[in-house]
Amino acid sequence: MTTIKPIKVGSKESNSNEKLTSAEMGKLWATYMGNSMSKQILTYYLKNVEDEDIKNLLKNALSLCEDFLASITEIFKKENFPIPVGFSEEDVNLEAPRLFEDEFYVHYLKYTAKAGMSIYNVAIPLMYRKDVKDFFHNCMKMTVDFMEQLKEILMSKGYIIKPPYIPVPEKVNFLHGNFLNGFTGQVRPLHAMEITHLYDNIENNATSKALILGFSQVAKKDKIRELFIRGKDLTHKSVERYINQLHSSNLPAPAPLDHLVTTSTISPFSEKLMLFHKMDMFSMKVRAFGNSVAVNGRHDIAMMYTKSLMNISIFVEDAAKIMLDNGWFEQPPEAVDRENLL
Question: Is the pTM of this model over 0.90?
Fold first, then answer.
């Protein structure tokens, strides 16, 4: 691969004495909150794991969380930026019995690693201060390396199938009028990018459904438990639609993970942590659907994603209202309200 040639320009290098921009504050804050939560979850997983390979994977994930939190804390302290409350040992019950089987942990870690990479991917082009740039570059590099460990375990233990194989094109073809058809007329087979995002959405939602199934078993507040059950049903219906699209083109789909949830009804996590986690996971689906629609070319698939997006947006809003009602919704950094300065 050709090495990119260095470019020297006259402007001076940014330094850590510069103020944090809104983008830098926002992405650092979001990364802190996510890793603050993950630290508590991973600590619990490590108390309930038997497979040595998976245990080492969890240890590596916890180490990354702690490193990321320490780096952000250092930057915030330089700026006299209040350290977010996030989540603490009060949000986890390490004595709770096992809620998930070992295999689930690997799928869960893949989901959260993808979510982290999504945050860093958006952040890196918007970061200008050197210490913040270096931090997010390091986050991306470490998470990519961790993803390779994850995939090695998933494949070696037979926990996952690769995305479907399709034939290599015999020649270059150009598209004609029926390319967008989905409801009427001649409907073409799925193209590679549509398959990619259907597979990815099924994989993500299989993990999301298993997690919310576990949370619905252990949640004590009726309103939160009912929301989790609703979220589980929404996710199940979405997964069925995505699988049907792959099957209609005679392609395989990732398997469900519901069987990896135990029958425990004792919660290892606080209601605040579980609700924040599912609100965050469902919010990430919005971005995933946006990416899916951007490369889609069929009307029926576009309508399917639009329906999922509407349902998920309502779920996220309802979860946010419960967070607000309970005083659990921590405020992100915000612009000045100049209308109410007095």
Answer: yes
